[in-house]
Amino acid sequence: MASLLPILLLTAFLSSKPALCYINPGATPPQKIGTKSSGGRATYIVFVEPPPPLGHGDGEDDHRRWHESFLPLSELAGSDDEPRLVHSYTEAVSGFAARLTGGELDAVSKKPGFVRAIPDRTLQLMTTHTPEFLGLRKDAGLWRDSGYGKGVIVGVLDTGIDSSHPSFDDRGVPPPPARWKGSCRDTDARCNNKLIGVKSFIPGDNDTSDGVGHGTHTASTAAGNFVDGAAVNGLGVGTAAGIAPGAHIAMYRVCTVEGCTESALLGGIDEAIKDGVDVLSISLGSSFAADYDKDPLAIGAFSAVSKGIVVVCAAGNNGPAFATLSNEAPWMVTVAASSVDRRFSAPTRLGDGRVIDGEALDQASNSSGKAYPLSYSKEQAGLCEIADTGDIKGKIVLCKLEGSPPTVVDNIKRGGAAGVVLINTDLLGYTTILRDYGSDVVQVTVADGARMIEYAGSRNPVATITFKNRTVLGVRPAPTLAAFSSRGPSFLNVGILKPDIMAPGLNILAAWPSSVARTDAAAARPSFNVISGTSMATPHVSGVAALVKSVHPDWSPAAIKSAILTTSDEVDNTGGPILDEQHNKTMLFGPFNTGAGHVNPTRAADPGLVYDIGVAEYAGFLCTLVGEYVLPIIVRNSSLQSCRDLPRVGQSHLNYPSITVELEKTPFTVNRTVTNVGPAESTYTANVTLAAEASLKLSVSPETLVFSKAGEKKTFAVTVSGRFTKAAQAVAVLEGSLRWVSPEHVVRSPVVLYIPVASAPPSPPMPAVGTRRGDNWA
Ligand SMILES: *[C@@H]1O[C@H](CO)[C@@H](O)[C@H](O)[C@H]1NC(C)=O
Ligand SMILES: *[C@@H]1O[C@H](CO)[C@@H](O)[C@H](O)[C@H]1NC(C)=O
Ligand SMILES: *[C@@H]1O[C@H](CO)[C@@H](O)[C@H](O)[C@H]1NC(C)=O
Ligand SMILES: *[C@@H]1O[C@H](CO)[C@@H](O)[C@H](O)[C@H]1NC(C)=O
Ligand SMILES: *[C@@H]1O[C@H](CO)[C@@H](O)[C@H](O)[C@H]1NC(C)=O
Ligand SMILES: *[C@@H]1O[C@H](CO)[C@@H](O)[C@H](O)[C@H]1NC(C)=O
Ligand SMILES: *[C@@H]1O[C@H](CO)[C@@H](O)[C@H](O)[C@H]1NC(C)=O
Question: Would you indicate the residue range of the signal peptide (predicted)?
Fold first, then answer.
């Protein structure tokens, strides 16, 4: 058992707990082993068969007694040891979490009804403006039509929540629906019609007040109420709101500053299913590729989805390397992170008159407006780490942070520098992850850094930084892909396009507990913070799912996902293709980076057609991908026990709203079925495109779909035909799209074709080299 996970949280702040402030995607993350205790015990998640139908108590008691029957006698004898049974699950999985020695685990595994045990792993956590950027307007459009997400419950699995924050006031929010079973019992949390459930799943620690900040930030992004006068250091001033400000929030605390154990995570999912949430927002993940039958998060998510809950997960922060995704199961919505069109502008004027526009999160500066000599140490490769040793007094130091901790900036300031211009690391390119470095520090892109380095080589270079306290909106191009956003292709199912969708995740302003220190004492109330990660992108999509669910309460999780994917934007605010962190076109490998595109809430509520998927089809998919033995572990449905009775569903053939095919030969056909959720009588015409590669052809049959009633289903076939030319084999992957077009709707699916390479297996060019996860740990 060696379970160690890179930290996924990517933050742009100096918190009081530097352990989580992992900001350099290129560095080796700290390693931390298991959850062993002094008694040689470790926590295991033990999967067992469902309880025999003998009990007389309620379901939970039956489960608990059944689970206890697997444990060593000392537990029952009531020894004063720590409790062995950590969680007894009833909904998310059939099984429990317990603390056991190796010998005890052996004994447990010999009992009838035992299925398998896996060691508990620790997973890591991965505004004022984003609703507007996504086209949501007060008293108009989708916000008005959905009552801001009225009647929908968003469950957030995270670090807890600052319940006193005004983002969680319930002004204008009606009581929760009668079906809601959750509560705030056993916590100090202030609950109301906005925050309707709070519970901790950390053994022995029921403090839910969020000592990290992450959970408060993500919950307020998904469904925080309107708060006027939100700002960070006086920047970005405006009205803060979540994406579904009328929805209810339930917080399940499954993470601490050290991360999130899978046993706690399953406890949270279990409770959320019982409580009756509609959407689960999961801004955390593993960067290990565990097979689905050994991945508690994937299994718990399956249970949630089969109960009608939309499960939205972070794609991970291990970009820009290729094939670095987390949470790639087809029943999840996997979210990539993008930039927004806002900058906290801090321009630097060079002695030659050029102005370089950087950004700063703290603009309360003394150096502002004065010219100082500009210092760049070419000999030291411009590294900040070394810059503080030179003669820097009264100078503006231009340097690259690269792998060093952000505290080197303090050393430079202590050395008497008048200011610091920090250049993004090469891998970040244009992705400037803002961090509150205190006063007199500006962050610039690699391209702007290069211009400044060139100028610093001239005679007597000088620079003037102006902190204008200016928040600039309408920045172009936006959105762009954030450098840290994990990239596809999917490791476990290469024939399912992942990530699914892209949403704002760079420099997101949202609620922050006033008790969690930012850099200085300026902890304003209410307090907000700007942080970055796919953790921040995830609750944007959870909020959109809540809005869609509010207007279409009967849609399945797969239908809601389809609506979000097929209506997304494929162009940025310049009208061109969405660019990556180097401002290159993401065209060739675009879908592996951005999924279907950038989320568009208004269109998502009215997609015209949806690609739906039921439990039986997912089960058929698992039969084909893994085998029959996973049905009792993952699917757990008495009417779906044998693969023989299920449709054979290869990866490309799952009724997914995108099409990904690993071609071996042509012609190759996939069938898809769409359901009419638009006007009863509507006619759609197919439009297919494929990247310039004349030798292969995409065709659709039939080319026209005529619907006469709501809910009507139509099946069509998409065929790839033609030859694999050398040119096609050289690119290895071809991108295209399928659009169903009616006068009111365009239903777009990305199409990705892997072309077999003549001899060697396909090895597409990569933006950077990443080491793919360790092997399985079971
Ligand atoms: C936390 O749990 C303990 C033990 O069950 C209980 O005594 C305490 O009141 C709980 N704390 C809160 C804030 O509910
Ligand atoms: C920045 O400007 C806003 C209003 O434009 C103001 O409220 C805030 O105090 C200013 N912040 C600083 C640090 O000057
Ligand atoms: C900047 O201002 C702060 C507070 O006004 C002061 O403590 C600090 O010494 C000043 N720094 C410089 C470099 O002048
Ligand atoms: C991407 O952009 C960088 C710099 O902006 C450039 O050096 C590189 O060649 C580009 N890569 C591709 C594949 O176009
Ligand atoms: C079990 O599978 C059947 C057949 O697909 C489905 O109708 C039913 O909803 C499933 N039950 C659960 C609890 O998922
Ligand atoms: C697609 O549908 C057609 C017509 O129903 C059927 O003949 C064919 O076998 C299907 N193909 C696949 C791959 O499912
Ligand atoms: C298909 O869609 C593309 C992209 O929107 C468009 O340029 C083209 O004109 C369309 N073709 C037809 C036949 O409608």
Answer: 1-21
pLDDT tens string 167-226:
999 999 999 999 999 999 889 899 999 999 999 999 999 999 999 899 999 999 999 999
Instruction: Check if 67 is active-site.
Output: no
> 234: Cβ below 6 Å to ligand 2?
yes
Q: Which ligand sits closest to the CA of 393?
A: 3
Which of 194-211 are b and which e, b meaning 16 or more Cβ less than 10 Å from the residue's Cβ? bbbbbbbbbbeeeebbbb
In this structure, which topology does domain 42-50+63-68+83-122 adopt according to CATH?
Alpha-Beta Plaits (3.30.70)
Model pTM? Answer: 0.90
Q: Is the CB of 757 under 6 A from ligand 2?
A: no
Average pLDDT over residues 263-270: 97
Residue 580 among the catalytic residues: no
d(CA 623, CA 179): 34
State the CATH architecture for 130-341+480-604: 3-Layer(aba) Sandwich (3.40)
Tell whether ligand 6 has an atom less than 6 A from the beta carbon of residue 671: yes
Q: Which residues contact 743 (CB under 8 A, 6 or more apart)?
A: none
Ligand 6 touching residue 673 (CB < 6 A): no
Percentage of the chain lying above the pLDDT 90 cut? 69
Which of these is catalytic: 535, 550, 562, 682?
Answer: 535
Pick the CATH number of 655-763 from 2.60.40.2310, 3.30.1780.10, 2.40.420.20, 3.40.640.10: 2.60.40.2310
Indicate if 749 belongs to the active site.
no
Strands 284-285 and 122-125: antiparallel
